[in-house]
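Dock zinc ion; give full complex structure.
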Amino acid sequence: MAFPVTRLRRLRRTAELRNMVAETRLTPDAFVYPMFVCPGEGVRKEVRSMPGVFNLSVDEAVKEAREVHSLGVASLILFGLPDRKDEVATGAWAQDGIVQQATRAIKREIPGLVLMGDVCLCEYMSHGHCGIVKASHAPQSLGAAARDAITAVAVRDGDEREKAIEKLAGIASRASEASYEIVNDASLELLARTSVSLAKAGIDIIAPSDMMDGRVGAIRRALDEAGYTNTPILSYAAKFASGFYGPFREAADSAPQFGDRRSYQMDGANIREAMREIEQDIEQGADMIMVKPAMPYLDVIAAARERFDLPLAAYQVSGEYAMIEAAARNGWIERERVMMESLISIRRAGASVILTYYAKEAARLL
Ligand SMILES: [Zn+2]
């Protein structure tokens, strides 16, 4: 039936009608609240680029966890800021690691709250990469690069010079790319060790975010061998190398000291590859899968929902949060309205679990 018999506006007339026919709903039990735990006592330090988000010492983290639980939010995901970093990420897998301490304290006080443990090495590595870094020998192309550099510097005028400088920047990044490597297979052992240590401390769900090949299988085997056959894995299966992670790196103090993460995180241009990543993780034993970031990758969430039957999570990342906060502070958008709209869009795309810095506030509104 077409217009005028059909009038779609009939069901939009009042808030009650709209609510009754809503196709997608948000509930606090679908939210996961990310928390950054740091050493010390009574520490509550706001992250500059993420107003309302804090680095919390263990005692403060327990208070925050209690509040999160009282709002009906299902789960917390913990990230750690260790007091020391090294080349083997000791802080990630040590039994007295900062996340392990926080886990034990929160579990003691609020046993009903589901705790997720982010498994990665970058926060604990002195170089800030997600795996073990090996310096590789300078390749021959460096000689050619040096010649290019000399040519570029010799150019003196205007436009030509601009171009030459741009070219130099390219040469520099190529050179540093060539001089180190994130070693995949050796990193798996540390990731597996970290996962077992977190499970031992009481983490309910292990969530690897490093994007090394084969990590889910390695972690599953290690958990099973250590007796944690019932601990599920939520894999950050399709994690894209993204500019939207900027504020997180400040929050978790995890910016790489050189280079970037494009050799292990996914290229934003690729959705078919994202499906392959997810498929691989499922084959290796992932119990839940995740797409990250959320809003710039809603099509990936929708495609994953269509294709796979596992519970699907999406991470509304720091940059998504920071953009909304910044625009709202300027009075350019209505904060609460945009917050809820961003969350419903992720839900509508097909994510059943949403990791979001808005978990507490959205739960209050629901
Ligand atoms: Zn990492």
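Observed: Residues 109 and 209 are 27 Å apart (CA to CA).
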